[in-house]
Amino acid sequence: MIGAAWRDGFRRVAAAPAVLIGVYLITLLAALPLALSLRDTLQDNLGASLAAGEAADGVNYDWWQEFTGQATGLGTTFTPTIIGFATTLDSVSGLLDRRALNTQVAWALAFYVAAWMFVSGGVLDRYARGRPIGAYAFFAASGTFFFRFIRLGIVAAIVYWFLFANVHEWLFAKWYVNVTRDVAVERTAFYWRVLMYAIFIALLAAVTLVLDYAKIRAVVEDRRSMAGALVAALRFVARHPSRVLGLYVINVVLFLGVVAAWALINQGAGGSGVWMWVAVGVSQCYILARLVVKLQVLASQTALFQRALAHWGYVAMPTPVRPEPPAAEISGPPPQPPSPSAVA
Question: Which residue from 115, 190, 223, 303 could staple onto 5, CB 3.0 to 4.6 Å apart?
Answer without folding.
Answer: 303
